[in-house]
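Researcher: Quick one. four chains, 442 residues in total.
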Amino acid sequence: MFERVLIAEDHESSNISVRKTLEDLGIEIAHYVFYCDDALTWIQKARQNDEPYDLLITDLSFEEDHNKQRITGGTELIKAVRQAQPNLKILVFSAENKAAVIDALYDELGINAYVRKARNDAQELKLAINTIYKSSKYISANLRQNIKAKNAYEFADVDIAIISLLSQGIPQKNIPFHLQEKGISPSGLSSVEKRLNLMREALEFSKNEQLVVYCKDFGLI
Amino acid sequence: MFERVLIAEDHESSNISVRKTLEDLGIEIAHYVFYCDDALTWIQKARQNDEPYDLLITDLSFEEDHNKQRITGGTELIKAVRQAQPNLKILVFSAENKAAVIDALYDELGINAYVRKARNDAQELKLAINTIYKSSKYISANLRQNIKAKNAYEFADVDIAIISLLSQGIPQKNIPFHLQEKGISPSGLSSVEKRLNLMREALEFSKNEQLVVYCKDFGLI
DNA sequence: CCCCGGGTTACGGTTTCCCGTAAGAAAGAC
DNA sequence: GTCTTTCTTACGGGAAACCGTAACCCGGGG
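Model:
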């Protein structure tokens, strides 16, 4: 079993229960921090002392407070950790439920497990830890169904950009200009209209307002 | 101190840490349930046995699963409990951070305390429990600032209705019809335009898409 | 009774958006 | 090279939304 585990979690209550779960698993050395910067510091220090951690359990969203941080969120922390200690296994424990976000964690950051804070999360946490101790990856059964649900429409970068601009109050007719600034193509007004039309049709919407709330719900903007 | 406490919380991990917190406070009888229906049942049964609970700690959002419930969320649970046992003190422990929602809990449902799942939530939970044991109400210091922030614009019922209809894809010109159906006034097309204009101006927006995401963010729709 | 003021509604002109068609540009096949 | 095919852009008519103005309705006060 894992011998040295680090927990990065700002919610005191979650932090407590994760520690308790690790206790149940018989993991003796479980350090915990409430800030991302501390997490990275501890990992680096542990490596220097030849006692590196072999598992990081981290949340995604960390709340700002008076204690200003260089690393502001779990995603950034994971990127930094991957640099500092590439072999460290990473388990993300978060309430995030947006397929787009979780997919990106697996695909782009190569996390080993994602456990969502939900009904049986403590049990699932144990299962996930056991699983990634032996193999390299754990994918929650609960998640898969949700991932399928997103297949209503595959948003392209330009789609997200357009909707994002709309939600910021940019008039449709000015969007081509902003797209060019960002180097996104296509950028013609007709193309913008066409993409919007396409999205509305695919999702059976009639108004852009619906698109905006939809993307908001799925964390795409 | 409270003697008989019931915890309604579907997240296993949160449930664990709340139990641990109560333990720390020396509360011996702390039952816990994962479903709202169970919570109500236990409360009623305890009353019948002349051993009523004196504190309920509940979450707001309960996730659906195979186990279909009559009561689907914390808000509904609180309403039901207020019927069953009016003198029961209620502490809400949730991640919800929208001023509109939390205000409604205090004002309309008369909860005794709201503790947000956040950085020092376990400590705050202890403080809140101690406070409402002596007096009747605990209001988090962290929350007050947030409540002020909402004063950008006071949304009327008709405003919410209009934005809600927009977000459902109803064309603006058809909104008068839907408003009449719901018995909301004013319902004229000009009034709809005027209210939208007013809201946009107050919030310094230029497009309805912005209004929609704004209301989404604050839980108004 | 009339008058007044707030709120609501009706009506035009202008702008923006929507959508179909067609012209133009880029990438690949032969 | 030319010819497709596909993607992108331009254009124009029609619908919707925007916005200012003016008419309307409806209580309260004189």
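Chain A is about 50% helix and 10% strand.
Researcher: Thanks, that's what I needed.
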